[in-house]
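Lab channel / #folding
Pinned by the channel admin:
"Please post every new chain as: sequence first, then the structure tokens as a reply. Keep commentary short and put observations after the output so the thread stays searchable."

First post following the new format, from NK:
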Amino acid sequence: MATLTETLSNSPVELWSQHNEDELQLVIRSAYKQVLGNVHIMESQCLDNAESMLRNSDITVREFVRMIAQSELYQSLFFHSNSPYRFIELNCKHLLGRAPLDQEEISEHVKIYNEQGYIAEINSYIDSEEYNSTFGENIVPFPRSLKTQKGIKNIVFNRTVSLLGGFASSDNGKKAQLVSTIATNLPQKIKVTSSGIAKAYNNTSKKFYIVVSQSGSNPLVKQNNTTYTVSYSQLSQQIQNIHKIGGKIVSIVEK
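Reply from TO:
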């Protein structure tokens, strides 16, 4: 019987300098599947120009991935219809093959998007040293962190499995799954059903203090902190509400 890791893992797909059309098509299909989160797309939605450029060796696989992630299709699937947390959660999964590492990483990407825009946010993953050292120019990003890796905490394993879900699942139309556990630095619990699909679950009655510093336009005016007390089930929504009104989370402490 296959293990969970074996069930969800795939061998890396690489485009070699000497390749045939079948090998090229495998790379293209793998890139669409990975970057678009296993969402089924119609033939008319494929990026014909990007595929042609890849076929003619005008771009590398890395640039093909970039063109998919910067496309209107990607934006319609994952940007316009999702919260910022879910968008970043999926960018990490699609472009780096792992779940977000911690709250600091999420905050950094929120800052990049707010200050520099959508294109800069996508490029921050693809142009990163992590992407370069892991996938280089011609390997399609793939789910990693399913095995112990240097520089990545074991806690990311559970988070990555929770994001993967299973072969039949897609990333379209889902809420953020990791906001609460990342913000509180709690382990992400997973369970495996008889069908082999991994699901995340949380079962806790804990309360949390969220200390928030309200942003202000006048630097001479002292800003007072506000503290919210919420249950675990309310935590994710409250965090998103705070960010919507411009609040900065100073700390989240278990009560």
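NK: The two ends are 42 Å apart (CA to CA).
TO: also worth noting, The mean pLDDT is 75.
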